[in-house]
Design brief:
heterodimer, A: about 240 residues, alpha/beta, Pectate Lyase C-like, 11-stranded mixed beta sheet, about 10% helix, B: about 450 residues, TIM Barrel, 8-stranded parallel beta sheet, two-stranded antiparallel ribbon, 18 strands, about 15% strand
Chain lengths: ~240, ~450
């Protein structure tokens, strides 16, 4: 008996009848106190800001499509969207895990500092824009301007990338398996090292994907925009 | 004819010749700090019509004149309550040292007002010292995190800045020291160029949703400010109100910056005076005066400026450059252990002099304010800075109440446009008040016969 794990307590919200405020307030203030660690959300019907601002080790499953900023600013929690996500999924995430089982719209993982964002399908424009340390794994392709000004963190793209990938990159690194329509300013292809292959393998494993790390190309910053000088003909 | 001919060109004066020759030599535009130096119509062009036979004054030294200011009453369950309508504008840790942010917080807390973070996140020093701290959400999102959102007293979404509306921030590498770099997730020493657009929303319809996200995260407790740089103010204020802002902050072109292209500072945006009137018109048009509060900034210096801003319809002002000057910016000395030490040689090494310095971007501030240099930042002792700033804010507030009493107001928020006239046709048109000695408001009433 002593070895049996306690069965986590579960709470369900139905956004067809419960309000978004009810849901988020419960997640912020009451779930931990009530000993509830698993929360199911039904009928999100495209609602915005579902499960945003979480700050506890909760396991949230949202069954359906969500609108903007799902799991925005997440800390610690695991949020799974069993559907598609609107713009800004997991924006500014600090830690934890957000998994979009379907497609993600624009700016997925924007400015995220930590944690792991997994998107099984495609992600639209500006995926990983201003990334600040989180990891993003996209099972499909990403749209143009992805990883724009990404500062730190890693993005694994199992499909193709659109135009201007990695424009004005800082220290973030991008791994792409498919075609890149064009690189952005200061982004360049670099050789894959054993360390890169190990990183890709680890991220794919965490995302539940089985591609061969050797199929990926590395994109990183050439660092020619790091300092302002006349001869570089830079536009500042 | 004898002697040297010295007929100066109006179009190619010495300043212009110097500019062209510097550009030709360097291939770079000039970057500098502080705000516009050109003369534009401003609050100096307005005057008060104080009490007389038709108005009854308050006793200037005796009668109470209220200054309490409440911001964020529209949706937030915990509005910001201030003792005075004079706040400290957003200025970043990075642009300023942590010691300066500490001093700002101490002074603001003493006089009962707020400070505002800036690009680069919230320092523990400022959160500790500032009782009421407004946390900016900027396009760069440097250092932006939910823990600080929850620790803040209000959130200010920055769309633009008066010194550079439409432009992103800039922090040259010499100011990106290890702590600044860590807070901004940047390599140490890089020339940081902030984004000019928010990463996760692109227009006013998106902003509605972004504001609601921040409200959800803060459980609808904290006021949400929206700050715009002054350009198309009438439309921008209306859009900010439609987006759900509790408070709109409008920053005129005289507003300062830590580092921006000179061409931007001097040629983009509209004067604070014109911006304020357009903002008030927008709130009136929406019947939102009193529901959404208006904060004006951009070159506010004195109690007279504050009084005029409030009379035109602002609920509060935010001061940046004036605050820095109060701390000792452009002073020829700095204080160490109670002694005034000379700084003129340090100004000279920067190629400038006290009274003219705008070299915030270099990180070599001779008085230790706009620097991250470990030795230079010691030149600003937080206790000294806090005392100076407290004195300045108290003085400005006393000037404000002096004018309000003279106009017969028991509350500074009762100052009204009817109390004002303009000295010039331009100011009358921009402010929407009559030219002094006439009833003529250019563009609103018929010209006098």
């Amino acid at each position: 008996m002593a070895n049996l794990k306690p069965v986590p307590s579960t709470r369900e919200f139905d956004l067809a009848s419960d309000t978004l405020r009810d849901l988020n307030l419960y997640l912020h203030r009451h779930a931990v106190a009530d000993g509830v660690s698993q929360i199911r959300v039904r009928n999100p019907d495209g609602a915005h800001s579902v499960a945003c601002g979480l700050n506890a080790d909760l396991d949230v499953h949202v069954h359906g499509h969500v609108g903007y900023y799902a799991a925005g600013m997440n800390s610690q929690a695991s949020v799974t969207i069993h559907g598609n996500a609107g713009p800004g999924a997991a924006e500014n995430m600090m830690s934890g895990r957000v998994h979009v089982k379907g497609f993600a719209s624009t700016a997925a993982g924007a400015s995220a500092h930590g944690g792991l964002l997994v998107i099984d399908g495609d992600a639209s424009l500006r995926c990983g824009i201003s990334l600040k340390g989180a990891d993003i794994v996209v099972g499909g392709s990403v749209g143009s301007f992805s990883a724009f000004m990404a500062q730190a963190g890693r993005i694994v793209i199992c499909g193709d990338a659109g135009d201007a990938l990695g424009d004005s990159l800082y220290e973030a690194v991008i791994y792409v398996r498919g075609e890149v329509r064009s690189l952005g300013a200061d982004a360049r292809f670099e050789p894959m090292t054993d360390k890169d292959r190990a990183a890709v393998k680890g991220l794919l494993s965490a995302a539940g994907l089985g591609h061969e790390p050797g199929e990926f190309k590395r994109v990183a910053s050439a660092k020619s925009l790091y300092h302002w000088h006349a001869d570089a003909n830079q536009e500042y | 004819m004898s002697g040297i001919q010295r007929e100066e060109s109006a179009g190619f004066d010495r300043q212009t010749i110097d500019y062209i020759q510097r550009a030709a030599a360097s291939g770079l535009y000039e970057i500098r700090g502080l705000g516009a130096k050109r003369r534009v119509p401003g609050f100096d062009d307005l005057l008060f019509l104080a009490a007389s036979l038709s108005r009854y004054p308050l006793e200037g030294y005796r009668e109470r004149c209220a200054t309490k200011t409440v911001l964020g009453t529209r949706f937030a369950s915990r509005p910001v309550e201030l003792a005075i309508p004079i706040t400290v504008a957003g200025m970043s840790f990075g642009a300023l040292s942590a010691r300066v942010k500490d001093a700002l917080g101490r002074a603001a807390t003493e006089v009962g007002t707020s400070t505002t973070t800036g690009d680069g996140g919230m320092t523990s020093e400022e959160r500790t010292s500032s009782k009421t701290l407004i946390y900016q959400c900027l396009p760069s999102r440097y250092g932006f995190n939910p823990d600080d959102v929850r620790r803040a007293d209000a959130i200010e979404i920055v769309i633009g800045q008066g010194a550079k509306p439409g432009g992103g921030g800039m922090l040259l590498g010499q100011k990106v020291n290890p702590r600044v770099a860590r807070m901004r997730t940047l390599p140490e020493g890089v020339d940081q160029r902030s984004a000019s657009r928010h990463p996760d929303w692109t227009g006013p319809d998106d902003l509605v949703i972004k504001i609601k996200e921040l409200r959800e995260i803060t459980d609808w407790e904290k006021p949400i400010y929206v700050k715009v740089g002054a350009t198309r103010v009438f439309n921008d204020v209306k859009l900010a109100v439609h987006a759900g802002a509790d408070v709109v902050v409008v920053d005129g072109m005289q507003g300062g910056t830590a580092a921006t292209q000179t061409v931007f500072i001097e040629h983009v945006g509209i004067p604070t005076l014109a911006a304020l009137r357009q903002a008030v018109d927008a709130l009136d048009d929406l019947n939102m005066r009193g529901t959404v509060q208006l904060v004006i900034s951009g070159g506010i210096r004195s109690g007279a400026d504050v009084a005029k801003a409030l009379a035109m319809g602002a609920d509060a002002v935010a001061i940046g450059q004036g605050v820095l000057v109060a701390l000792g910016c452009n002073s020829d000395t700095y204080v160490q252990g109670g002694q005034h030490l000379p700084a003129a040689e340090d100004y000279a090494r920067l190629g400038t002099a006290p009274g003219f310095c705008h070299h915030c971007h270099t990180g070599k501030c001779p008085v230790g304010i706009t620097t991250q240099d470990p030795a230079l930042e010691l030149r600003l002792e937080p206790a000294v800075g806090a005392k100076r700033l407290r004195n300045y804010l108290k003085t400005v507030n006393m000037e404000l109440t002096t004018i309000a009493r003279a106009c017969g107001k028991q509350d500074v928020h009762h100052l009204e446009k009817e109390d004002l006239v303009a000295l010039t046709v331009e100011a009358a048109a921009m402010a929407g008040v009559p030219l002094a000695g006439t009833s003529w408001i250019p563009g609103r009433t018929s010209a006098p016969p």
